[in-house]
């Protein structure tokens, strides 16, 4: 058989091994001078609550918290051969032989008293050996003795009695003690090693932080470069658009001048035809008729236009204006357009005295593409609502601009007077003035 010993704390009843074994057999009878028995409950595997310690009805003990189970190998019941000479017992169930569990001791089932004595002796020896091997838990010894409290050191050291939680608590306590001891007894070498590790980690962390800052700075610089590139491209597009607009306006002016010239030629031809004498043919006689006189009321003077040099006109207008201002006792307080990078000193003086104002105001620079770039938003932010302004631009060798006697605004509503106009210093100069 295979024996399994399982113990836990609690109150139990100690049962001898022979008693455990005898509980497996019922309906004991004496047949032929031998102890025979009919097997009762056969147990081939352990089942909690129906083991060998339980009652015969298969239920468990009420307070059984520690038990011992003996598992037996299955044995084939032995049936005696049926004989016709035994009468009515031939067809009736025959008692089976009890398994010979003493064969390993060299004892066989002989006569009644002798075999019974041998079995009892061996049972007694096994019971004694079992009691010597079996250690009764402390709770049972305390109930079975009147000595009071006994030493529990042996029981406390048994892994069968101690709870798993107690063992785990002891393990954690020992681990904490070892960790505390390691921290208290740390050698100077270990402390120095730990300091070096911390310094290395701090240096690595600072290096990573510097790298992140450098990457962020590089990203900001790249973004600024992209913005500047976009602004330059926008300025180039605006300049190209202005150039195309100027070309279109010049083309329209040339076409207008050409149409006017053609119209004048047609009018001149019509006038010459009207002044030429007419001849009337008559088959009877030929008479020369003189043209009818032209009424003075219907005669219109012929207007002739002539292109003038803009520099000459500008110089004459500026000289006349300057003389008129000086006659009034007005003097200049500062040089006109002194900070301009487009106008020469001669052009600045001529333009200044050609503008339609009756006094000599001071000029100061409020916006320049050299300083502020070509942003229209910046231009309007500086120029809007800033009084009378003069805008001068240069594209290639062409210099042109505009004069605004009223403040600028960006409301989208048309504004201005006849004293707001455009001008050019290199092509035909058209600047109105009052004599």
Overall description:
- The protein is mainly α and about 425 residues long.
- It folds into three domains: about 1-75 and about 95-150, no CATH class; about 190-265; about 310-425, no CATH class.
- It is built from ten helices and nine strands.
- It has helices at about 15-20, 110-135, 140-145, 155, 165-185, 190-275, 310-325, 345-355, 370, 375-385, and strands spanning about 1-5, 25-30, 35-40, 65-70, 280, 285-290, 390-395, 400-405, 420-425.
- A three-stranded antiparallel sheet has the order 7-8-9, with no helix packed on it. It has a two-stranded antiparallel sheet with strand order 1-4.
- Strand 7 and strand 8 form a beta hairpin.
- The radius of gyration is 67 Å and the shape is elongated.
- Pfam families: TLD.
- InterPro entries: TLDc_dom.
- One of its GO terms (cellular component) is mitochondrion.
- Keywords: Mitochondrion.
Question: What key phrases describe this protein's structure?
Answer:
single chain; 9 strands; elongated; disordered N terminus
- Main sheet makeup: 3 strands, antiparallel
| Helix run count | 10
Range of strand content: 5-15%
Spatial shape: elongated
Q: If you compute it from the alpha carbons, what radius of gyration comes out, rounded to the nearest whole angstrom?
A: 67 Å
Kindly state the mean pLDDT as a whole number?
66
Number of strands: 9
Q: Which series of helices and strands comes N to C?
A: EHEEEHHHHHEEHHHHEEE
Count of all domains: 3
Query: Taking strands numbered 1, 2, ... along the chain, how are they ordered across the largest sheet?
Result: 7-8-9
Point out poorly predicted stretches.
1-78, 80-93, 95-117, 142-157, 279-290, 431-435
């Amino acid at each position: 058989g295979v024996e399994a010993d399982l113990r836990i704390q609690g109150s139990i009843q100690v049962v001898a091994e022979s008693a455990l074994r005898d509980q497996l057999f019922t309906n004991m009878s004496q047949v032929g001078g031998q102890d025979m028995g009919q097997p009762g409950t056969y147990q081939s595997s352990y089942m909690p609550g129906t083991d060998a310690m339980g009652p015969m009805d298969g239920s468990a003990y009420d307070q059984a918290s520690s038990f011992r189970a003996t598992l037996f190998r299955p044995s084939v019941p032995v049936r005696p051969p049926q004989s016709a000479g035994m009468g009515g017992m031939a067809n009736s169930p025959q008692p089976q032989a009890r398994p010979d569990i003493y064969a390993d001791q060299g004892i066989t089932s002989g006569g009644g008293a002798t075999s019974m004595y041998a079995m009892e002796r061996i049972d007694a020896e096994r019971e004694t050996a079992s009691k010597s091997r079996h250690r009764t838990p402390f709770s049972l010894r305390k109930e079975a003795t009147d000595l009071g409290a006994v030493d529990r050191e042996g029981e406390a050291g048994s892994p069968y009695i101690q709870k798993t939680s107690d063992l785990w608590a002891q393990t954690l306590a020992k681990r904490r003690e070892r960790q505390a001891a390691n921290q208290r007894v740390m050698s100077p070498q270990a402390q120095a090693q730990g300091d070096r590790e911390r310094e290395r980690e701090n240096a690595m962390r600072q290096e990573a932080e510097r790298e992140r800052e450098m990457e962020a700075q590089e990203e900001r610089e790249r973004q600024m470069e992209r913005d500047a590139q976009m602004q330059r491209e926008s300025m180039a597009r605006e300049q190209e658009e202005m150039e195309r607009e100027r070309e279109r306006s010049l083309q329209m002016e040339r076409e207008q001048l050409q149409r006017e010239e053609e119209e004048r030629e047609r009018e001149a031809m019509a006038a010459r035809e009207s002044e030429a004498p007419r001849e009337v043919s008559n088959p009877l006689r030929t008479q020369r008729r003189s043209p009818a006189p032209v009424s003075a009321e219907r005669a219109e003077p012929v207007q002739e236009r002539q292109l003038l040099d803009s520099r000459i006109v500008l110089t004459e207008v500026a000289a006349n204006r300057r003389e008129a201002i000086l006659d009034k006792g007005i003097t200049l307080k500062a040089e006109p357009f002194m900070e301009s990078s487009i106008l020469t000193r001669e052009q600045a003086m001529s333009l200044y005295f050609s503008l339609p104002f009756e006094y000599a105001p001071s000029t100061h620079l409020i916006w320049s593409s050299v300083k502020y770039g070509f942003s229209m938003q910046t231009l309007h932010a500086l120029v809007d609502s800033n009084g009378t302004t003069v805008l001068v631009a240069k594209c290639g060798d062409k210099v042109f601009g505009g004069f605004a006697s009223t403040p600028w605004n960006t409301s989208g509503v048309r504004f201005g007077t006849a004293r707001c106009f455009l001008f050019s210093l290199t092509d035909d100069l058209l600047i109105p003035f009052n004599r």
